[in-house]
Fold:
Amino acid sequence: MFRESTVEMPPQVCYNNSMAVSRHCWKCGQEYKLSGSPGRSETCLCGADLKVCLNCVSYDPRVAYQCRDRRAEPVEEKHVANYCEYFEFIRREYVPTVAQFASRETKARESLKKLLGD
Structure:
């Protein structure tokens, strides 16, 4: 007769098809399409610097100096371009910040008030 197989199959990897993993601006989500890492003077269309800690693979708010790379010198302003030699642009999904949702909500409320005459 037939026996059941005792070989375990590897778990299936599920990908979120709604959002693509890309290298993008930490502030507005604009994708960085050039190869290599951005230079210190490169900025996004929104005006935010691109070579910043917030766009780096080593950035982690839970560790000392918010950087997992122990060779890097501490940087105080994580959103401003710096001279870090160990910068590597991270690939991730863009998730809008709460502040962007709040501003969108306030704009919608204001336009509704104007429409209703309040």
Observations:
- The radius of gyration is 21 Å.
- The CA atoms of residues 65 and 74 lie 6 Å apart.
- Confidence is low (pLDDT under 50) at residues 1-17.
